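hi! just following up on the protien thing from before. the input was this:
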Amino acid sequence: MQTELQHIVDTMAARVGRPALIEDRRQRVVVYSEHTGLIDDVRRTSILRRHTTPEVIAWFRDVGIMDARGPVRTPASPELELLPRVCVPIRHQDLLLGFVWFIDPTGDMSDADIATVTEAMPDLSLALYRENLLGELTSQREAEAARTLLADAPETRCEAVRSLLSDGVIAGDGEVTALVATLVGTREEPVDEPARIALEHTLVATRRWVGPREALHLVRHDHGVLLLCCGRGGGGRVTTEAAARHLGQTLRSASQGLSSVSRTVVGIGEPRPRLYDTVSSYEEALQAARVGARLPALGPLVSWADLGIYRVLSRMDTRELGAAAVHPGLAGLFAEEASQVLLETLETYLDLAGNAHATAKRLRLHRTTLYYRLQRIEQLAQTDLKDGNERLCLHLALKLARLNGDRPDR
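and the predicted 3d structure came back as:
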């Protein structure tokens, strides 16, 4: 089928005397003719990465290509380093399948040339419809198997493993580790469709980078999943750490300039010995990503193994368990005008196991200042920091308040 599309696009480009590129309806590159002459960075990036950037996708959608029923001349965008284009939507029985693109920097692509392209639409739409249908069926079977792997029913997980192996999607039933990629929205607006497209492009790009038949991906409502199958220990050439870094860096790059995204987080689950156990690694990666989304200080890569007490807290219904329920004295500390300084002092002191010397050094304080603050904390929280049980409750309550976003210094 790809050969048929290649023949059509080559013939079309030859007839109008300029390079042509075909994208599917999600603006992923399907096929393109030989490119000579002037092209812009957007076209170059599309060919190299097999897809365009979310910013460009959003810009073209604002121009109106998704609703177009005929050829559209799109203007230049100096900010995106984008030259003017002619876009011809590809439709099959009014179903949008994709687009044919021609760069037209001087606006001299004639109506006759555009008519030549339009005449080829019946053959092109039929060929692309066949390819989309086959591709959709394959991707739907794969996505369904991946979804089933992340479900709880043992029988269906066994069937999903058999399906993935028999279809040759995965090389073998070996070690598997889940990564969860999350886009953190801004306070002004939630994560939008261009951001979700960026997420899927990132998962696909990282999957290709990992290598054929060594990964699966799945896009869910508010996160993406990358399953590293047969990783280190199972014959894979890429470590989990390297794949997580690549996923995080690619996601940050893809989401730059999107107003709905403030930052990105990748959660890393623990490895499991076989595909059947993927759900456990996924649940860990999902919790790690959610904790990382709430706590920016943890950084863009958050491993379940390194979460410490947050492993416990993230599995609890923290909406019903507030910090004051763990230690009522925190309410008095939160109400203090200088609470931010005192909370930082207390948390550092507890993180360092009550070591006053190490705390003063970490906070760059004179020992006398530290002791004054600790005494003030004891008064406000009505506690005794010499009591191990009190220290435990305070430490747990502080971490819970941080996770819930209830702290005054958030």
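Residues 2-134 form a domain with the Beta-Lactamase fold (CATH 3.30.450.40).
The chain has a mean pLDDT of 84.
cheers
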